[in-house]
Amino acid sequence: MPRRCCAAPDCGLTGLLALLLSLLYMGGVVNPNADLRDLPIALVNDDLGKPPPGQRENLGTQIAAAIASDDAGGKAGWRRLTRAQAQTQLDSGKIYGALVIPAGFTDSVTALTTPGATRQPMITVLTNPGKGSLGSSLASQITTQAAHRASRSVGRQLTASAGARADTTTKLLLADPVDVVTQIGHPIGAHSGLGLTAFYYTLLLVLAGFMGGNVISSSVDTALGYADNEIGPWHTRRPTVPISRTQTLLLKMLMTAGITFVSTALVLLACVTVLGMDASHLPLLWIYSYCAALAVGLGVQAINAAFGGLGQLVSMFVFIVLGLPSSGTTIPLQAVPGFYRFLSHFEPMRQLGYGVRAILYFDARADAGLARAWVMIAIGTVLALAFGFAMTAYYDRKGHKRFTPQPA
Description:
It is built from 14 helices and seven strands. By secondary structure, the protein is of the alpha/beta class. Strands 2-1-3-4-5 form a five-stranded mixed beta sheet. A two-stranded antiparallel sheet has the order 6-7.
């Protein structure tokens, strides 16, 4: 009888993992425009001019009301703000952009039909590159389209008002009379990767914690005699040390705290000093980097202690596979399917990424995501400690010892 292939279960597991990775990674990036909902954008009306003859409201108020009622198919979450409020929210990363109707807008529009016209009416689109190049681009598209629709609406009113008095050139001007100007609402440094350095730096912190935790776990198991040490053709096995699971986990977590101190310092040194990444608040950035990577490393140790050999796979899904598409630092959470928005409430990469972004781009403001990040780091650390030691204590009480007597 033919033997069954002992690798069949492994092949099936590998295929399942490849399928899950494909669905999870690509599911969040395939069509951001179709998934886009309620992207927060400010709508500012500074126009205080008198209403045109025969109308109850000035043109700025009319345009703002029309834009706010037309949510671009649910894609825009318009916020009616003053100019100062909009700038505050741009500076704290709460909005992806703004549409500003300037003071004197009505006067400059009505002047177009008179010989005294001196300047073209203008509407300003403000971008926020600190929210990421894609998010800022999506907001810019929505605001620019809204501004051009407003311009054509105003043009129809002006053309009707001018009537037969307007010649062909004037009618062409009045058809789309408003100049739409795009400006940066909250600038970031030239060495900020168009708003993407926050994501990649966060990924480095997660990888530092993930790899450090797994390297320490493997090294400690080898040193204590619970795993073989193989380097090329050389194989060694140290005598097994009789030690409880709880003591082993404590040792691994202490060593993780030490190695994370070094690894995060090297990450910061490489990114800022060697590569020249724009970064301010360097002492805070390093302390935050250490705490963030340490929380990940402790989580890895807890998962490894609970799941044994499957721990590396489980922690990879928890910290990386599910974290990347739900981080919100490359694609706005408003532009991903609901499943990823749900994950973003607790997935570590989103929490850590918003804190990094606040430090790098938004002057380390607490309301830019830094306060939430610190809280989530503390919660994650407590959960890792509680879960890890609860599981090892349970295994120890049940007599599931790791110690295996060595043959003489």
